[in-house]
Each structure stands twice: as C-alpha cells, then as structure tokens.
Design goal:
Elements: E1 3-8, H1 12-23, E2 28-34, H2 37-47, E3 51-55, H3 63-72, E4 80-85, H4 92-99, E5 103-106, H5 111-122, H6 130-140, H7 157-167, H8 172-179, H9 183-197, H10 202-211
Parallel strand pairs: 1-2, 1-3, 3-4, 4-5
Pfam family, one: GerE
Domain Response regulatory: 4-122
Protein name: Response regulator protein VraR
C-alpha cells in the first residue's frame, strides 16, 4: 500500500528536499505541500493524506495547533502526524504530543531514518526516542494538563507494568520478552490500555505515564 504523505513546512527548499526524498521511496507519494499550519489542515482534509510531516514553527497557524485540529477531526481519525523540529530539546514537542502527534524527529535526521519514521508512524506505531522524550518531559511536563477520561489507576497491575515499559520506549516484542508474554498478548494489553485511557496511540500513553508519575524522568 502506498503511503500518502503531506509535507508541512514554511521553508520551500526544505519542503522540496523532503518531497524528492519521499518520492524516491516506492511505497510513498507526496499528495501535497503546505506552507502554513492552516493550509496543512485543509490539505489533510482534501487530499486524504495518511501522514503529515509537520514543522512546528509556521505562520498563520503553528504545527501544534494544526496537529490539534487534525487529531480532533473525526473525519481525519486515520491521519498520523510526525512532527519535525530543529532541536530535540524544543519545548513545544511535548505540547505537540499532547495535541495528538504520533512522534517527532529532528531536522538533521538522516534520509533513510526519515523514511523509516514515516513507515513506522503510518503503520500506527509511535516514534519516540526515550532519552530526548524523558528530558523534555522532565523539563516541561510540570504544567497542568487537560482533564483525562481515565488514568493509570483504572488499569490492572499487569497493564500498569506494560504501560511503564511503553513509556520507556519498548515495542510489543520487547515488552513480551521483558514480562514473559507472547507478542500477541503484549499487543492486546497495549490496545486495551489505549482504550481505557482514551489514548490516540503509544505517544499519548507516554504522556499519561509521565504525567501520572507512573514513570519518572531519569528512570528510562
């Protein structure tokens, strides 16, 4: 299946470079380019993109607000957002994850890594580097967050164990190995946790784990 990619960045040269890279992959196609967040939201709706590569700092509407609008639109429920930033210590990354982004990358990422990231996020997984994520949360996740429909207290002991491992960056296979489960069982636990916590994806689970204190910065 071809991944339909929308590129959102206010720098034309950056967009064109990304477009050439994405089009070089046999399993991807660029369906649109946006120079602002508002344009990105509009094109996500009209072009039915599978994934938006979203810059944070853009005119008219920034990448965080654009991500929030996309995530909140029921008609765009299948659209994933991969946020790009110049620095991995950008304080807006946490807000982007809260808004519904499924992961982030820095702009100096190698071309092959960007393509792999697009595939990972488009497949419904999250892309989080545990080290930078922990540093960001430690520094910026102190502010009050929006009310949630549920928290770790509604989870079973096993589900809390699984959630803590998700927050540490483990995939389903690694979680299965760590807890002596089958990969299918680990996947089932993750799916149930997302349902109970009303989380969009694994990136949202990371935020819940840190905000609740289940996982603390420095423990990853």
């Amino acid at each position: 299946m071809t991944i339909r990619v929308l590129l959102a960045d206010d720098q034309t040269l950056v967009r064109e470079a990304f477009a050439l890279l994405v089009e070089s992959a046999r399993d991807m196609e660029v369906v649109g380019q946006a120079a602002s967040g508002r344009q990105a939201v509009r094109l996500a709706r009209s072009e039915r993109a599978d994934l938006v590569v979203m810059d944070i700092r853009m005119p008219d509407l920034d990448g965080i607000e654009a991500t929030r609008l996309i995530a909140a639109d029921e008609d765009l429920a299948g659209v994933r957002v991969l946020v790009l930033t110049t620095y991995d210590t950008d304080e807006n990354i946490v807000e982007a994850l809260r808004a519904g982004a499924s992961g982030f990358l820095v702009k100096d990422t190698r071309p092959a890594e960007l393509l792999d990231a697009i595939r990972t996020v488009a497949a419904g997984e999250s892309l989080l580097s545990p080290g930078p994520t922990a540093r960001l949360i430690e520094r910026f996740l102190r502010s009050p967050s929006a009310p949630r429909t549920g928290g770790p207290e509604c989870l079973s002991d096993r589900e809390r164990e699984v959630l803590s491992l998700v927050a540490r960056g483990l995939n389903n296979t690694e979680i299965a190995e760590a807890l002596g489960l089958s990969p299918l069982t680990a996947k089932t636990h993750v799916s149930r946790i997302m349902g109970k916590l009303a989380a969009r994806d694994r990136a949202q689970l990371v935020i819940v784990a840190y905000e609740s204190g289940l996982v603390t910065p420095g423990s990853v």
